[in-house]
Amino acid sequence: MQLKPREEEILRKIDRRRIPAHVAMIMDGNGRWARERGLPRSAGHRQGVETVRDVVRFSNYLGIKVLTLFAFSTENWHRPAQEINFLMSLPEQYLQTELPELVKNNVRVQLIGDPEGLPGQVRRAINEGLAATAKNSGMVLNFALNYGARMEIVRAVQALIRDLQQGKIEPSVNEATFAAYLYTAGLPDPDLLIRTGGEHRISNFLLWQLAYSELWFTPVYWPDFCRQHLLQAISDFQQRERRYGKISGE
Ligand code: V0D
After folding, report:
1. Homologous superfamily of the 19-148+189-238 domain (CATH)
2. Does 95 sit in the ligand 1 pocket, CB within 6 Å?
3. 53 Cβ neighbours under 8 A, 6+ residues apart
């Protein structure tokens, strides 16, 4: 992989043996990126997809095991129909160009969220991507689509009650039992959450799973987010991890 001098410089400060296994990202700031350039919001989203392409490639190169990207929330349905239509064309666009490379690089595409609420065409395009990469054993590329964390938790509770009533599980429910009912069942919790676009909020993303994660915020808009920012986030993550490991004053 060809890196710029600035990227090399940050990479040298990173311990390649302690790369966060699971990185989650809230990709915010596309609309403001576009407005500041006098462009329609769709231009921000289109540029945002370019960022996704490179972040996926680079995450895989760094050895990140799971990358979870918040692409569309259950609250995003309140946006204008025109914007929603454009957003819904992006999964197919992305997969059309990237799928061969994802397959070649052993990346497994997964989905978290409610697929029932998605238009049929979007679901079909995504199912194709899921099927084509289902047997891959490398990085998991997890798209959160029509996702909301409270809804995820409520659905988990509903499914758990159903299984209890049917006698499929023991009434002694613990954290592990519960986590197995979430969309993220089988995945490690995120070590690091990155949010671009300047807001310092979780916004109904992975509420349960982020309990112990490092949170990293940047004012940089998602379309401007690049390798040096991801490297900086990982470098900061490793600094914080090192500090927490020590007794105070050590
Ligand atoms: C727009 C910035 C990739 C955030 C990134 C439907 C908003 C670009 C996907 C994608 C979106 C989703 C599923 C999949 C493959 C690709 C995507 C949406 C928005 C919402 F299987 N980028 N992207 N999906 N944006």
Report:
1. Decaprenyl diphosphate synthase-like (3.40.1180.10)
2. yes
3. 94, 97, 98
